[in-house]
Amino acid sequence: MNSMNPIVKATVAAGACIILSVGTAMAQGANGTNDPGIQQRMTNQENRIEQGVQGGALTPRETGRLEAEQTRIRQTEARMKSDGNLTVRERERLTTMQNQASQDIYNQKHDAQTANVANPSAPGVRQRQINQQQRINQGVKSGELTPNEAGRLEAEQAHIQQAKERMKSDGQLTGAERQRLTTMQNKASQDIYRQKHDAQKVPVK
């Protein structure tokens, strides 16, 4: 009398498997470290900062402060993930930090401070800027650069970018102007090296 119909037993077993799978997926979603939404928002905010630099809405000083803020968010996220979990409370904290950063980007891009830039292309000069930006990003990820250091270096890169655009505003980049940019880039390269190899570090995993 207590025996269960084979069809019923199969249905119950299948339901248990589904419940277990859903529960596991929910647990992973709640406690895992993967969060594409957070990563995508970071990318979007970096793009907004870059657009502000290119368009002249952000000065080098403003860019440095915003990049330092982005660096703090990335390094906070890395520390939260170091135990293999990203809890609901930690996700909420990151969201709050990103909300503040988003508002700061908007405020800085819409204030009275602007930079005079033009936008013709100069691929040779640009490549070195790309390389230096990659070195800064690597330093942030490895913990060799603190948020303040990264912010200062990003401000220097923005200053070089905007100086280059002003030089190109007449439609050309003279030999003397290229030499000046090279001098600025040489100094920036030395600054990146020095900041990455000083005693200030950030523990990240």
Number of helices: 7
The domain count comes to: 1
Task: Characterize the overall form.
Answer: globular
How many beta-strand runs? 0
Order of helices and strands: HHHHHHH
Query: How does the helix and strand content classify structurally?
Result: mainly alpha
Compute the average pLDDT.
Answer: 81
The percentage of residues in β strands lies in: under 5%
Main sheet properties: none
* Model regions low in confidence, pLDDT < 50 over at least 5 residues: 16-30
**Helical amount:** over 70%
Radius of gyration from the alpha-carbon trace, in angstroms: 24 Å
Protein model, in words:
- The chain is built from 7 helices and no strands.
- The chain is globular, with a radius of gyration of 24 Å.
- Helix 2 runs antiparallel to helix 3, helix 3 packs antiparallel against helix 6 and helix 5 packs antiparallel against helix 6.
- It has one domain.
- With 205 residues, it is mainly α.
